[in-house]
Amino acid sequence: MSQRSGRRGRGRRAAEALLPGTWGGQHVRFEVTDGGANVEFDCAHATLRGKILVNGAGQFSARGTYYPEHGGPVRRDETNEGFPARFEGRVGGSLMKLTVTRDHPHEDLGTFSLTRDQEAEIFKCR
Asked: Does an H or E element contain 94, and which?
């Protein structure tokens, strides 16, 4: 019997929310909260709203807002409303593979390897 579902022979199990905690890797920090996630990149950050559901194969797909950053001072009249992006990944044990893609225009923003409870290696734009 599966410890997660308590049923035998059903095959698929229901999607489960990614548990709160921090995942880190080179150039990325992914902090899962009860309400979504906050992500830090070298020269950007992102927010995801709502629970991140992981299917029986360990895969997830979530939508969020990606905010590019830049070095140097921020001007008074400068705004950064960000843009919609998709955050897709796969979780297996303490490892995560995360791919971030801008919606329109379609642009691959990067693929990252993360480990749960590991410090991130981020170099913020200054």
From this structure: none
